[in-house]
Amino acid sequence: MSKLDPEVVIDLTSAKKATIPTIAPGLLLALSDGLVLALVGWTLNHFLGADALAEPMEAAAWQRSLVTGLMLVPLVKSVFGIYTLGRFDYMERTRRTFQAAFLCCAVLAVPFIVMEGFRSFFVEALSIALLGFAITYVADLLLIQGLLSSALDWRTPVMIVGAGPQGAAIAEKLQRLPWLGMRPVGFVDDDDNLWQTRVAGLPVMGPVELLAKSPAVARQASAAIVADMGRHGSDLTGLVRTLPFRQVYCVLGEGNVSAVDATYHNLHGSLALRVSVRPPTGYLRIRRAMDIVLSAILLVLVAPLMLGLAVAIRLDSPGPVMFRQKRWAGGKQTFDLLKFRSMHVDAEEQLQQLLANDPVAREEYTTYHKLTVDPRITPLGRFLRKTSLDELPQLWNILMGDMSLIGPRAYMPKELPEVGDSAAVIGTVRPGLTGYWQVSGRHRTTFQERVAMDVFYVRNCGLLFDFFILCKTAVMVLKGDGS
């Protein structure tokens, strides 16, 4: 499950036989790491090792450093349970990989300090280990998102208990993000008005008790997700025990529980979720300093590109180069968000006319606040949006303190009624050029899903989370997966 849906996993009956054994994904990751590390070792040894060193003693010392550094990677990753991680969540994998790399630094720092004659050995071994962590991390993500997520037989078939709005949101999310490792097959719900209907494209098969009474229905899934714990109240324990599955995922909240640093505790038979509440003051100061430095550097580097784009926009369609729009900055404050113009100058009039005459477009815009086929966009504007180049002027907003490199979406003032009570949380940090929702579906997410993701980000913001978002943003830009 995604960290956006924190859950409790309760083991019940004997395990069912899966198409691909549970150990298989972890074994594939371990084999992938072994192959990658072997290639890294061969490459380093060929260009920097025995073939390049004239002295036999230096070559032997290099070999020891190489072997030590490479062996530390799978050893420490296994200690942190990366190969046995049941859920394929980018954030959880990133967090554990960082912890593993930090442990390597700590382990090698002690002998580096006390053993003066071996300092070069430990520096080389640590450098190789950190390189190994970085390369295997990228390889793991490629394997998960590429090979494993495309194999439907590998994904665990799950039955969702509760076909309400939260259950529908979870089903849609699991279908959109196959790397989460779960494939929803249907719903059960005690509301008879929903029986024999379809929610999020999946059938509502009947009441919850159908799973216990009909083995044919139960065999379609290997696990269950209780979509709304609050709906079941004190009957949750009894409900869970009636489900004929070894694993039951009880969703605690849709973006309302801060779970990046959450841990589970056994209070002498009572399961408790400990959530760390961290004041973000120090982090926000560090992030502001990074925003100033990085935005200033990037503005200098991309200045020639921005000049060329400005000329191209002038030639493409009549109108100004820059597009300015009022955006909300928390409380009653607003600022002028800058973008390269990607629409015709009469875009607002075209939008109102389109929404008035096309009910399909009106429904899509109401749900997503975007249009898949938008006639207002200029030919060059489509390229700018696909590559996200239209957002380069926002580097000036970042330098001036209106925005941050990473943060929640910069909402328009007219959207605040739909944001609702969540505005009190979202408005505590600067809006970002990129953010959690932009790398988690972007234009394929509904407006309310974006709000939930922004709330989740604000409640869990940190340097590691920001690094994760930056990496995903770079991948999306390279893929051209713009808005």
From TrEMBL:
Residues passing through the membrane, by range: 26-45, 65-85, 97-115, 121-144, 292-315
Membrane-related topology note: Multi-pass membrane protein
One GO CC annotation: membrane
Primary location recorded for the protein, binned into one broad class: membrane
Alphabetized UniProt keyword annotations: Exopolysaccharide synthesis, Membrane, Transferase, Transmembrane, Transmembrane helix
UniProt GO BP: polysaccharide biosynthetic process
Compartment(s) where it occurs, according to its Swiss-Prot or TrEMBL record: Membrane
GO molecular function, one term: phosphotransferase activity, for other substituted phosphate groups
Superkingdom as given in the UniProt entry: Bacteria
Alphabetized InterPro entries for the sequence: Bact_transf, EPS_sugar_tfrase, NAD(P)-bd_dom_sf
Positions of the Bacterial sugar transferase domain: 287-479
Keyword Disulfide bond recorded: no
Family: Belongs to the bacterial sugar transferase family.
Protein name (Swiss-Prot/TrEMBL): Exopolysaccharide biosynthesis polyprenyl glycosylphosphotransferase
Lineage: Bacteria, Pseudomonadati, Pseudomonadota, Alphaproteobacteria, Rhodospirillales
